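Hello again,

I reread your note about wanting to compare the complex against the isolated chains. To keep things tidy I'm splitting this into two emails, and this first one only covers the full assembly. Below are the input lines as submitted, including protein chains and any nucleic acid or small-molecule components. They are followed by the predicted structure of everything together. The single-chain runs will come separately.
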Amino acid sequence: MTEVKSPEVPAPPAAVPAELAPERGGWQRVRPFLPLVALVVAAILPYSTVQLPGVFEGPLNSPGTLQLLAVCLIFGGLAAGYDLLFGRTGMLSFGHALYFAAGVYGTDILVTKAGLPLWQAALLTVTGGTVLAALLGAVALRTVGIAFAMVTLAFAQVAAILVARDFGGLTGGEEGLPLDVSGLPDALVGVANTVNLYWLALAYLALVVLVVHRVSGSPTGRVLAGLRDDERRIGVLGLDPYRYKLVAFTLAGGLASAGGVVYCLIVGGASPHITSSELTLSLLVMVVLGGPGTRWGPVLGGILYMYLDHRLTAFGTSDAVDALPAVLSRPLSQPLFVLGTIFILAVYFFPGGLASLTSRLTPLRRALRLPSSRP
Amino acid sequence: MGTVILLALTGLGLAALYFLVASGLSLVFGLADVLNFAHGLFLGVGAYATWWAAGNLPGAGPDGFGFVLAVAFGVAAGTLVAVLVELVLIRPLYSRTIEQVLVTVGLSLAGVALLQATWGADARPFPRPEWTRGVTGILGAQVPNGGLLLIVAAVLVLGALLAFLQWTRYGLVIRAGVENREMVTALGIDVRKSFTLVFAIGGAAAALAGALGGVYFGTVSPGQGSSLLIFAFIVVVIGGMGSVLGSAYAAVAVGLLQQFVNYYGTSGLGDICVVGLLAVVLLLRPQGIAGKVATA
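Full-complex prediction:
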């Protein structure tokens, strides 16, 4: 028997049809650097005194505007972290608020009640949040699908009860727990130093985007995408879905608790509403509005959602809305009504969210360009 | 002894409330695979419609027959909203589970905000018949009448639901659909009609829970539904998706556990025990007391 050897013919690279090849125009060359440009613009933003009437109350470098922007950036990062579960792995967790709240309350309690220096408190909190996510994830991931959603919801509910009932006098109950700033570094305290908190929030967002991007590009990320698309197939390939999901869950939990640390500094304390299931639901809304499973969609969704949530309150009490008949003006003064309605419409008519805008506009652009390219 | 009886009966009152919310939730999930976050909205609509009717509807009032009329109006409003939600929002998305959950999430946010916009965020005193404020002595325990009313209503609803599922053709279709929806469709029966039906039943039960819960608590507020909903979810999972009887057992277990532990332990510990019970049930018996495995 002669062994038949199939000669390995090097396949010629597939020819890309000319019309599909990307244009090597200036835009394509600039594009990879856009995130960097955005980061630099965001970083030097506090030096600008531009007034944007209608968009922000004060000039860009006023503490109020910077704080709003910082909160928006934090939630952009949180949404990106949540997307690691929902958009990239296909896990519908209703308990993500728990890990964020663990970060906020952990920092607050360790600094205010235990008197630890900030860096120790932050380190302990993030470690604790990650371990908590690993432990609870290990239990919750025994279930799949809707049952998983229920279990995570129930775990988060326990945390909400613990915080609200103020066990051991640690959490301050319904009133929340203001952060004791006497032990903090001077650069993070006071209205004049809001800009430093803004930069901290920006750094957090950049970190989350970087981590999520690196993970989803790695072999692990491909397994996670496989889990989202067809879990059984991953099992058939000999990989353990449970382990990979636990990795994603733990990582997302750790990122959320890190966001909680920064949020605690920005807001200057903790209040029980961050433990509620509504926070997780709004994370879900952010991700879906932005575009699940995309790099920038959840970030944009998170920033936009928090911005609208803050600004719609002002919009709802503005004269333009008050002049409307009560049937219209009352619902419009409720940010959640507006956001919920936008969300429902988005689920129906905009399944890809904001991130799909470019691809959705492509046919339109092409239609507009074609007549002009013809002689 | 009196304390134990009192705790048992108030626990059962709580269980009745959970059961009224969970039974519809369970049927909807079992048949149509929709995890309905908007169920709390139906409850809120029922409560507010009853509250509105007692003050404004001619013939209705806070007492006697007028109160029955007000509750009937509330239940009708809840049913109507549930049917509309099913027809307009859920129906176009069947077999797309995640999108359905997302739509009901959006609906719960927007709906509660709408209630809040219309009637304010603060709790309103609920109109209730004079006798529900009193207590009845049972075996040495002074039990609030509002709780007893809830228990009676829940038992009646349970009986009616079981009879409906057992002896009518629609009930048969629903039971078969929970077991195996594809097979029922293959036999040429339009299961979608029964989807609307279970939404209507669920909406009616939730609205009744809203109205009687208003009597029990004495106030009505926009967020009432969502806080009950989480425990109703837990009851549904423990009881098993799609099983009305399972929901009833689970509601009793959850209500009693919560009430007793909250009294003898620290306040709030009972709620945590309930979640512990959920974790144990899910790990040992994922399909719940009765019903199909909660997957998909």
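For quick reference: Chain B touches chain A through 43 residues (CB under 8 Å).

B.
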